[in-house]
Amino acid sequence: ISSQVADDAMTPHDLGRSCVLPREQVDSTTYHEAGHAVMAMAHGFVVTEMTNIASDAGMGYVKWQTPSPVTTASRIGTVLVLAAGMAADFIHWKRSGGAVNEDCMGHRSDREQAEVHLAALGDDGQFDIYLAMAIRFLNVPSVWELVELFAGLMTAVGTVNGRELIQGVANRVPKFGSDELGFLRLALDQSKRGLL
Question: How far is residue 168's CA from residue 102's CA, in Å, rounded to a whole number?
Fold first, then answer.
């Protein structure tokens, strides 16, 4: 892993929100960060820390590393990781019987960070397709169980940074495989042709 890519990848995500959700902010941040972590693991990225503790960097963050050099696959993975925070928020909201106006999501920083990769992939303006794929993947019961595990750990201790613990769970995360990538490509193609 190159130091520049690792430094970029390990920059805590500033969770600038465009709206205030009625449910507990800490609960929302916890699921958001757990979603990022599990999706990073699904792409084989090394996750070293996650927290729901607010700091100057934002409401919480996940530190992960992507391989170097940057590849098409790592860009796709990075966009899905960035979308997975919002995806986890949405799934948690739905499973909690969300209130009518609670589905207001707008994590600007995650979208903005994704745009660089989307442009390089030729997928400008397609973040919502990646978000839909992240929702689809995280909503698989065996995957969601791991999101809940990390959310529970962060709720209990705030910051999770034990590499053995994180790696042990990472080994249980199903990989985002060729079937999912094929479905993503199909959805992107249909979206770009105006069929979605």
Answer: 34
